[in-house]
Amino acid sequence: MSLSVLRIGPACTVQDQGRTGYLDQGLSRSGAADILALHEGAALLGQAPALAALEMASMGGEFEATERTRIALTGAPMQASVDGNPVIWNASHELEAGQRLTIGAAIQGTYGYLHIGGGIDGDMFLGSRSAHLTAKIGRTVQVGDRLSARAGSGAVGLKLQPDDRFSGGVLRVVASFQTPLFDQDTLDRFANTRFQRGARANRMGIQLESTGEGFAAKGQLNILSEVITPGDIQMTGTGNPFILLPECQTTGGYPRIATVLPSDQPRASQTPAGGQLRFQFVTMDEAVALHAAFQGDLSRLPTQVEPLIRDPHDIPDLLSYQLVGGMISATD
Amino acid sequence: MISPDSDPFPRIQPVGFDGLLVSFADTMAEPSNRAALAFRNALDLAQWHGVIETSASLASAYVRFDPDQLPHKEIRSRVSELLGQQNWFDAPMPSGRKYWRVPTVYGGDFAPQLNEAAAAAGLTPDEVVRRLSDSRVRVLTIGFAPGQPYLGPLGPEFNIPRLQELTPMVPEGALVLAISQFVLFSGPTPTGWRHVGQTAFRCFRPETPNSFALTPGDEMQFYSVTEEDLENIRANDSDGSGGATYQEIGS
Q: ipTM for the complex?
């Protein structure tokens, strides 16, 4: 199965779940900005969530199937069509050789995913196919590239109702080791502030804006550089928060006020510019329960796929179908 | 769960949802870096089921774990017990470390901020080159960019501040200096540290089987060579070592 790339957005990369174990070498995990979308694509194609997909930041591209190819579309919903006919997002489809898949701009959210049956067979480096552009590992996908996958059999024509995580909302956070550097008033104000996602955003992190004064820590400029993990909410010198994402640095001297739970990191990554976000502190016990529920949801995804055809709403060109014309006998 | 920052060292604190940090100081010093490296090594040797990865930074060790397999209370008590087993500030360094000697051009067009650094340190440029060239420093931690070491400690005369203005770009292999530490850049980068030396040593070699040249705890010496020497080394360098040689450090 394979697609050749005819047009492509400026920030599309191959991503899987990233590489673990190189923190001590200054290399962060990378991997999909929306891990949930990888699991959804896997469920729609009946394959493993460890397989790589194409991550498309805000803008997709045009792809031609060089042979019969199964695909799935997940994450931020984008305008998509095959040979000009709209196709359903959060669903798996089959392309015949020569058919063209066109994926436009995100309608909601930031990161859309194009999965290919068998998983995209990108270069493996240190156990992962994930590009990590800030570490100069891999590169963006370019016109003329071929996205190929090992053949494999699996389902198509399935759909999922995804969690809506594409327009901001509440992010659950836990206190981390630098949280006590912020006084209680600042922490309360942080939890009561409605933030807007700013314009500065990439796979390293997203900037948040709010009205009112910033969120400064005690001795902010004299903090020893310490370990950073994805999900950390870092306060810059001006007291504006950044939520750090999979390509974040591994250490840094700006204090972190809290850490977004792994279950809510997809929502953080997907929030588009201008989207509103709020933070809710939870205890570690609550976090453990929320995380277990998230893992349970991921493992149940394969049982939640449904056939596409049952619902007339799923047939985008319904009006062009001859619904009764070909019928010869009502009892056939 | 979270200690107030008045708690004594060593200190165990949570890092987000799935990590613990064991800090030995809140400033960089040789004994606390030694403790961090030794304790991180002990965490690795313990091989607890449920540990995902560990690392060491300037003065602390980090462990990430799967709370399903290793609940927070359990790992915290195990870390606390391990911490109590010895005085980590005078622990021996981990074995298997290397001592690297790296040919380095100090000053001139290759490293144009040496004179500024000398002025900040209150020494002549020749004296700075002599002292830096003779300094044997440790890889204190690796970070910021893949494979990129922070090295030290250098003598107190080199406790010079970072620049106010960033230098727009210094090349891969640049040896930069501030706050009694070197950084050896693994790629071209803007920096507020002073560019005092230039090497042909590549810290991150993604195209080779061993992508990362250095390990925290390794030691390095940047001995002075001429620009011509470095050009010759570059012309004949096939593996990115830039003429560096190493020997194992006996534990």
A: 0.89
